Amino acid sequence: MADLGAALRRSDVDAVILNEASPLLAHRVLSQGTLVFERSAPARVRFQTKTASLYLDLIPIFETHIRYLKRNVREGRIVG
Fold first, then answer.
1. What letters, b where the CB count within 10 A reaches 16 and e where it falls short, cover 24-57?
2. What is the largest CA-CA distance in the chain?
3. Angle at 49 between CA 44 and CA 10, to 5 degrees
4. Are 51 and 30 in contact (CB under 8 A)?
5. Which ranges of 1-79 would DSSP assign to H, the alpha helix?
6. Cα separation of 15 and 5, whole Å?
7. One pLDDT digit (tens) per residue for the chain, 80 residues
8. Is the pTM of this model over 0.85?
9. CA 26 to CA 1: how far, in whole Å?
């Protein structure tokens, strides 16, 4: 990782194997990260399309989870 940061002349570099990442992380990397290597543009586009579709399918589940977490914090069931 240090070699990648040095090559890019940055200290804030994180490398992620997107094929193994959660849908939330993969979407965040694809929407906010910087592509540094691709072996195949068509494969990248297929992956981006699949990841975006999966992320959009999961948004209602994420929203429900956040709603329950907020309620539990308000009710004192979760302290942190």
1. eebbebbeeeeeeeeeeeeeeeebbeebeeebee
2. 50
3. 50
4. yes
5. 2-8, 23-32, 41-74
6. 10
7. 567 778 878 888 777 888 899 999 999 999 998 887 889 999 999 999 999 999 999 999 999 999 999 999 999 988 76
8. no
9. 19
